[in-house]
Write a structure and sequence with these properties.
With 677 residues, the protein is mainly beta. The chain folds into 2 domains: 564 residues, Methylamine Dehydrogenase, Chain H (7 Propeller); 86 residues, Immunoglobulin-like (Sandwich), CATH 2.60.40.1930. Helix content is 4%, strand content 42%. The protein contains 4 helices and 39 strands. It has a 5-stranded antiparallel beta sheet with strand order 10-11-12-13-14, with no helix packed on it. The chain has a 5-stranded mixed beta sheet with strand order 16-22-23-24-25. It has a 4-stranded antiparallel beta sheet with strand order 1-32-31-30, with no helix packed on it. β3 and β4 form a beta hairpin. The longest helix has 9 residues. The chain is globular. The N terminus is likely disordered.
Length: 677
């Protein structure tokens, strides 16, 4: 397998030139990797760990925190953590499955056992176990171990909506005692003051489906809203008692019912559908897209359902999209249009699963899960989706071959109404989120995985993701792609919360189960636009905290005890979309931007904005921190200035790879990543 470790972000230019105008194509011979059961779903089939963990942590000497050298723009603070599991629910849960959403003056976060609300300065407003939060549903809900929770802010209605799943296994299949539940809650206002029925409406959905006489349970919810409905997708897996099997993905559509319905405290109207009955579709993990815009996507159109899962014809990889029309059945629907298969080119080699992420201090890697689609947003004529890949296809001979968070942008502008036919979606852009700069001078591979996506009204896109590597503990990060950025480009990784120690926590039974429990990290992350400031994003994710609270381990080659602990953190990312006009003499903040293609072959034109006069230093460094060029030094007046980095030619040309340009001034510093082809 070809591998060049010094280049991490070349997918942009290479794939753009090869695939930018790729049309939707029929796919009679496409295949995809089978979906995995989610971390929460896997844990729900095991006995709960209810032993009281010893209080406190015991940080190990000689294991310093490896923080990113790049600061996060805006405030940040920690949320609930591993030990809060026991305080809230008298049991322990891994992985945390973190997700958060922002309202006008509330931040609500969920993990696999808990829910909490904070103000935007980090002050705790309320916290509760999920089983207690959903207690008003007693009689339908199982209220044992809700898992795979997600939260979204419905910007159309000004409400938070929360979903979680449950299941109970009878041990035989079929059986009336096999139970699967989808639990949903909607806040009565945009600022709930408690986790009780005083501030929330609740509804319970039977998620068990019988297919060919076999009982299946719902796993791994996709969860989004448009102007009219809540969309919940789930994978279906067999209850125990028959050989394990997968029966595809299903879609539940919940009518909001602002007048007399669910959002008003009345009955919820719910329908369930199989969108993969469409000829040629691939019934794999499917995510609905969050929808923005006063009229939604287009008249009569609900949302898009997106899938990846390594869909391939053996030469190229594809994104699958199914459109949902008339979701509430006003004209006899819902109707499913498609599938559209949009080529991504030869993105990756699919002979094996995604490589798990190494971490310092232990041979146990972090599980990065599979290639499923993870999150999607449709706004202003573009459908954005994220997944995780190993970008080592023939079209990217210089890309790293380790696990990388990947984003795709599809042009939906040709879909103007529910009368629009299938086959209108085209690829606008795509790219990988490289993380090697997170390691700083420590170097080594840095894997990025489990991304999420949000889009604001200025056309800027923010991505939250996890990162872990040979010299980087597992932590939470984010990056932004400005509306004016070159194809495939994203900004440097910004730190939400860097990992503090290595993480191993599996709850493998003392008898050393076969197959063994996995060192799972969580199956998704959260990022959302701030509805009170459309130029800002709130990121919520997990990080590896200092080790402590040990439980029995030692199975399958792992340490005894197992003592990994996760924490969670919020951070505010302010928009910097690079749209200020060049030549504007009024500069209000320190700026550093590339004005030529990035990735590109050079020369590189850089623009700096100085809010006040002073001595500056503008230098270019390689990935080891060595300065390779000094572009400016000395006193400069306030205003905008340009500098050119001549990368050379022939034998004197600098090697292709990643470089960092750094601006240092009396009022602060800025750094940008450059990829030279």
């Amino acid at each position: 397998m070809h591998r060049v470790t010094t280049v991490r972000a070349l997918a942009a230019a290479l794939l753009a030139s090869l695939c930018l105008a790729s049309p939707s194509v029929p796919a009679p011979t496409l295949t995809a990797e089978p979906p995995q059961i989610s971390g929460g779903g896997e844990a729900s089939g095991r006995p709960l760990v209810s032993e009281v963990p010893p209080a406190g942590a015991y940080p190990m000497p000689g294991r310093p925190r490896l923080a990113s050298p790049f600061g996060f723009v805006g405030r940040s603070f920690e949320g609930f953590a591993y030990d809060d599991n026991f305080t809230q629910s008298a049991s322990l849960a891994v992985p945390p499955e973190p997700m958060g959403a922002a309202g006008p003056n509330r931040l609500i976060a969920v993990v696999s056992s808990m829910l909490e609300a904070r103000d935007k300065n980090g002050g705790l407003i309320f916290r509760d176990a999920l089983k207690d939060f959903y207690a008003p549903l007693a009689g339908c809900a199982l209220l044992g171990f809700p898992f795979d929770p997600k939260v979204v802010y419905d910007h159309y209605a000004g409400r938070f909506v929360v979903v979680a799943l449950e299941r109970a296994n009878a041990g035989v299949n079929p059986s009336a005692s096999n139970q699967s539940r989808i639990l949903i809650a909607v806040s009565k206002t945009s600022a709930p003051a408690s986790a009780t029925s005083a501030d929330w409406w609740f509804h319970c959905i039977d998620g068990k489906l019988v297919v060919d006489g076999v009982d299946y349970w719902a796993d791994y919810p996709g969860f989004e809203v448009d102007e009219d409905a809540i969309y919940i997708t789930n994978n279906l897996f067999t209850f125990p008692g028959v050989p394990s099997g997968y029966a595809g993905s299903r879609l539940w559509i919940v009518r909001k019912g602002a007048v007399g319905g669910f959002y008003a405290g009345g009955p919820a109207t719910v329908t369930v559908h199989n969108p993969h009955l469409l000829a040629g579709s691939i019934p794999t993990t499917t995510m609905p897209a969050e929808v923005f815009g006063s009229g939604g996507i287009a008249p009569g159109v609900g949302t898009f359902l997106v899938s990846y899962s390594g869909i391939t014809d053996g030469a190229s990889e594809f994104v699958q999209v199914i459109r949902v029309d008339d979701p509430l059945g006003t004209a006899g629907g819902p109707f499913f249009v498609g599938p559209d298969f949009v080529s991504l080119g030869d993105l990756e080699t699919l002979a094996a699963g995604l490589p798990d992420a190494p971490q310092p201090g232990t041979a146990q890697p972090i599980e990065v899960n599979d290639r499923r689609s993870l999150d999607a947003v449709c706004r202003d004529g573009t459908l954005w989706l994220v997944t995780t890949v190993t970008p080592d296809g023939a079209d990217q001979p210089a890309l790293a071959d380790h696990t990388t968070a990947w984003w795709v942008a599809l042009d939906t502008g040709a879909v103007t109404s529910s009368a629009s036919p299938a086959g209108l979606l085209t690829l606008s852009d795509q790219g990988g989120i490289a993380g090697e700069e997170i390691a700083g001078l420590a170097g080594g591979d840095v894997y990025t995985f489990i991304p999420s996506v949000a889009v604001n009204g200025f056309g800027s896109v923010a991505f939250g993701f996890a990162a872990c590597g040979t010299n980087v503990y597992a932590g939470a990060y984010a990056t932004v792609r400005g509306a004016g950025d070159p194809l495939g480009a994203t900004d440097l990784a910004s730190t939400v919360e860097a990992g503090r120690d290595f993480y191993v926590r599996t709850f493998d039974a003392a008898a050393c189960e076969a197959p063994p429990a996995r060192n799972r990290w969580g199956d998704y992350s959260g990022i959302s636009v701030d509805p009170a400031n459309d130029g800002a994003f709130w990121v919520f994710n997990e990080f590896a905290d200092f080790r402590g609270s040990p439980t029995a381990g030692g199975c399958n080659g792992r340490p005894d005890p197992e003592d990994g602990r996760w924490g969670t953190a919020w951070a505010l990312m302010l928009n910097d979309d690079g749209t200020a006009a060049a030549g504007d003499p009024d500069v209000s903040e320190l700026e550093l931007r590339a004005r030529t293609a990035n990735p590109g072959r050079g020369p590189v034109i850089l623009e700096i904005g100085l809010p006040q006069a002073g001595h500056i230093d503008l230098s270019v460094h390689d990935v080891l921190g060595h300065r390779v060029a000094r572009l400016a030094s000395g006193a400069h007046p306030a205003g905008r200035h340009r500098a050119v980095w001549e990368v050379g030619a022939g034998a004197g040309r600098i090697p292709a790879g990643i470089y960092f340009v750094r601006l240092v001034t009396p009022v602060g510093s800025r750094m940008r990543r450059l990829v030279i082809l």
